[in-house]
């Protein structure tokens, strides 16, 4: 039941973001970009070949988007695993950086960066 609730919540959030004032005005431009035609030409031509071309472009766009974000996710996961192995060193180096930046902020030391 919890998984269904999460899927419903994600779908609802996607729907709300789709009809938001930031995204909704971009839909005609997006359709024109996918088809290579203006909105008026799309309204005039409702052939099956035109719809198939639009669907093909939309599927290719979604697949490209999916591949890019999957690669970014895998890369972030790999970097996270490496950092997890060296977390003690990363924590100490981070602490030193924070102290140095704090000293710079209060004026005890001046650096060019």
Describe the fold and architecture:
The longest helix has 38 residues. The radius of gyration is 24 Å and the shape is elongated. The chain is built from five helices and no strands. The termini are far apart. It is mainly α and 113 residues long.
Spell the H/E element sequence. HHHHH
- Tell me the quaternary state: single chain
Mean pLDDT, nearest integer?
82
Shape: elongated
The major sheet is characterized as:
none
Radius of gyration: 24 Å
Q: What is the overall number of helices?
A: 5
Protein traits:
5 helices, mainly alpha, 113 residues
Q: Can I get a quick summary?
A:
This protein has 113 residues and is mostly helical. The protein has helices at 2-18, 27-35, 39-44, 48-85, 87-106.
How do the strands and helices of this protein lay out in sequence?
Layout lengths: L1 H17 L8 H9 L3 H6 L3 H38 L1 H20 L7
